[in-house]
Design a protein that fits this description.
The chain is mostly helical. The protein contains two helices and two strands; from the N terminus they run ββαα. The protein is about 75% helix and about 10% strand. The termini are far apart.
């Protein structure tokens, strides 16, 4: 007789014996699925690396943009303050 796997049936919580024959019949299919999964994991890993690299570049650009915006805001405030002082003293 073939080997079996013990498991718990979710319906009545009795211990059941599950035959291994159906699994052995689909061994090649399971192997192919595992290979596909490994290939999928590899592709996803590369995609995530690329995404994180792009996010790092975007973060640096955003930091630079924020610095430029703060500098421009400071310049406008000083310029307008100078105009107000000129009008008040003028």
């Amino acid at each position: 007789m073939g080997s079996s796997v013990r498991g718990i049936c979710p319906v009545d919580q009795d211990v059941k014996e599950y035959p291994m024959e159906p699994y052995e019949k689909h061994e090649q299919e399971i192997l192919e699925m595992r290979l596909d999964f490994v290939a999928h994991e590899t592709q996803c890993s590369e995609r995530w690396k690329t995404i994180f690299l792009r996010l790092d570049v975007m973060e640096k650009k955003m930091d630079r943009l924020q610095s430029m915006l703060l500098t421009a805001t400071g310049t406008v405030i000083i310029f307008l303050g100078g105009i107000i002082l000129t009008l008040l003293n003028g």
